Amino acid sequence: MTTYRPEFEAALRLFARVSEAMDRRGLPRPVLVGGAAAELYSTSALTTGDFDFCSPCQAELEDEMQRFGFIRPSGAGSMLKGWIHPELQLGFETVADVPMDGNVDRAHIRLVKPIGESALFRVISVEDLIADRMGQYASGTARDRLYQAQLLLSLHPDADMEYLEQRVREESAGDYGVEDIKSGT
Questions:
Q1: Do 129 and 100 contact (CB within 8 A), yes or no?
Q2: Longest dimension (CA), the chain
Q3: Are 110 and 122 in contact (CB under 8 A)?
Q4: Residue 62 domain boundaries
Q5: Residue 1 within any structural domain of the chain
Q6: Which of 124, 142, 171 is the last residue of a domain?
Q7: Predicted confidence pLDDT, tens digits, the chain (185 residues)
Q8: What is the per-residue burial (b if ≥16 Cβ within 10 Å, else e) of 172-183?
Q9: Number of domains in the chain
Q10: pTM for the whole thing?
């Protein structure tokens, strides 16, 4: 049985409801990326403090978020770019119009239904997430991302290795591939 942190499960359900509201309006569902996608795919072995997502309809998405009780924090020490929900201890932020500068194959974006929820949301594939982790690792600014890529790959041995190799090479400017993840470079 899949087990997540309770606050993360609650956030997934709320994100799915916002996503469903966007779909009912005929607008694209936002796509979950970053740390929240890593927590989703690792069943909370990796944890996050925020939900990053991509949406080309930010104004409409923010309207829906407000309808679901999200507020934009204000004042000193507040996260000024994102949103919070009073019942959750996680930030929510639109980080781009499309995932990974449009380099994600749309066919690899997944639709997910959280436990105990009928609403759906979109998330980048585990392959694209691993590639993102390796791109950050390759930049030299996030050395812990290699561990995250290794953990995600170990939890998803059924990943599309051909696509993963292509995406890791793209995100790391050709410096790394799947074998580097497996060997720990």
A1: no
A2: 48
A3: yes
A4: 6-124
A5: no
A6: 124
A7: 568 889 999 999 999 999 999 999 999 999 999 999 999 999 999 999 899 999 999 999 999 999 999 998 876 665 557 899 988 878 899 999 999 999 998 999 999 998 888 999 999 999 999 999 999 999 998 999 999 999 999 999 999 999 999 999 999 999 999 999 999 87
A8: beeebbbebbee
A9: 2
A10: 0.92
